[in-house]
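queue> pop job 88
queue> type: inverse folding (structure -> sequence)
queue> payload:
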């Protein structure tokens, strides 16, 4: 298929079709993407926030040093989970939008291959940071606990690696939903290190600031978990909760501004399809705007209330609603962009469907079993940090970090 008025050719859809209704794959793609991004935001946000704490430690902030170490200790497991959880949404992406996704990969060329190299580098650097720091679960003292300077150098490299991977994924997405940009002046340029779309930079900033805000909520949750199990000094855990909630509140407010800039960077046709209640995806996204505006206020109030757990739960619940709403909006922008920029307007209804329900059932069963196994593994690992080795529940809804946590 050729895009009218240009040299762009879009590969045809796979004539073998897909084994189920397209909307089923869209739903599974969004579900698994949310699971992937929850852990990926801990990686991205955790690295950025740990870097800030590392710098604060160099300036003499006493509690910043162990707080940074705590975040670095969580990164290897979080990154492993993010990579594992990222397999399913990537496969669904290839099933639904293969002609666009693979074309974007080819046009990125060496830029796309750099993702693998940099991701591996960042992966092993996170293990180095974890190895050189104390670990309460493993009862291990770290060589870099009192050397934030050394940790800062490795932390900078790790953060840069994570942000680079995010950049490559961003330009890959921009190129995949904008076939009109595949050929420049009639030439198929490769490699591409930047996609000259109006939404490229706003999208990247919107994603990274949002990820760091969610990372702040993760940091607060880790502080609560440690306080509940009486792991580490109480003042460090309280400081981590306060820092995480404050970072999440400030960055969420910044995110609202960046989100507006991102909306204004979209094509008018795409913007028109997203706003209002013109379809299911856009409707869910529009509804999520209200809790998105309320979230910074709730986070600020949670900080002012000295970290009461019930306000953290309220902030986390609102954040999840916003998070899911943004996933719906992301998919709506993809649909509208492909419809506007593809030959004849791309629609999911163009796919030939040859149902194979046995495969769908096997996938869903394995997904549920896999998530259950992951949950059991995480519970087993985290229970090792409980006082006396026993499991414990969450703090009571009205408790504060200034109070003594109930025994596990």
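queue> result:
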């Amino acid at each position: 298929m050729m895009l009218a008025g240009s040299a762009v050719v879009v590969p045809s859809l796979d004539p073998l079709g897909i084994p189920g209704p397209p909307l089923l794959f869209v739903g599974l793609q969004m579900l698994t993407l949310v699971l992937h991004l929850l852990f990926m935001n801990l990686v991205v946000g955790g690295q950025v926030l740990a870097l800030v704490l590392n710098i604060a430690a160099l300036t003499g902030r006493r509690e910043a040093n162990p707080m940074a170490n705590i975040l670095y200790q969580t990164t290897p497991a979080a990154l492993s989970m993010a990579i594992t959880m990222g397999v399913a949404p990537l496969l669904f992406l290839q099933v639904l939008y293969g002609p666009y996704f693979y074309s974007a990969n080819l046009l990125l060329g060496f830029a796309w291959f750099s993702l693998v190299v940099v991701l591996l580098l960042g992966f092993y650097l996170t293990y180095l940071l974890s190895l050189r720091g104390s670990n309460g679960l493993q009862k291990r003292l770290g060589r870099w606990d009192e050397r934030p300077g050394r940790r800062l150098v490795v932390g900078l490299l790790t953060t840069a690696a994570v942000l680079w991977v995010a950049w490559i994924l961003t330009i890959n997405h921009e190129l995949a939903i904008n076939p009109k940009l595949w050929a420049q002046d009639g030439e198929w340029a490769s490699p591409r290190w930047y996609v000259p779309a109006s939404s490229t930079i706003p999208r990247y900033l919107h994603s990274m600031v949002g990820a760091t805000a969610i990372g702040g909520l993760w940091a607060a949750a880790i502080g609560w978990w440690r306080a509940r199990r009486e792991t580490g000094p109480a003042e460090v855990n309280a400081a981590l909760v306060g820092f995480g909630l404050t970072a999440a509140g400030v960055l969420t407010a910044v995110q609202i501004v960046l989100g507006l800039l991102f909306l204004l960077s979209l094509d008018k046709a795409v913007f028109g399809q997203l706003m209002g209640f013109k379809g299911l995806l856009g409707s869910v996204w529009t509804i999520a705007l209200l809790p998105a505006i309320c979230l910074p206020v709730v986070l600020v109030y949670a900080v002012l209330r000295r970290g009461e757990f019930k306000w953290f739960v309220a902030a986390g619940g609102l954040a999840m609603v916003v998070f899911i709403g943004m996933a719906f909006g992301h998919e709506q922008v993809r649909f509208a962009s492909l419809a506007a920029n593809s030959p004849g307007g791309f629609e999911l209804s163009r796919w030939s469907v040859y149902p194979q329900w046995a495969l769908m059932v096997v996938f869903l069963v394995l997904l549920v079993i896999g998530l259950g196994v992951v949950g059991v593994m995480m519970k087993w690992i985290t229970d090792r940090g409980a006082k006396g080795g026993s499991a414990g529940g969450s703090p009571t809804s009205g408790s504060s970090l200034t109070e003594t946590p109930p025994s596990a």
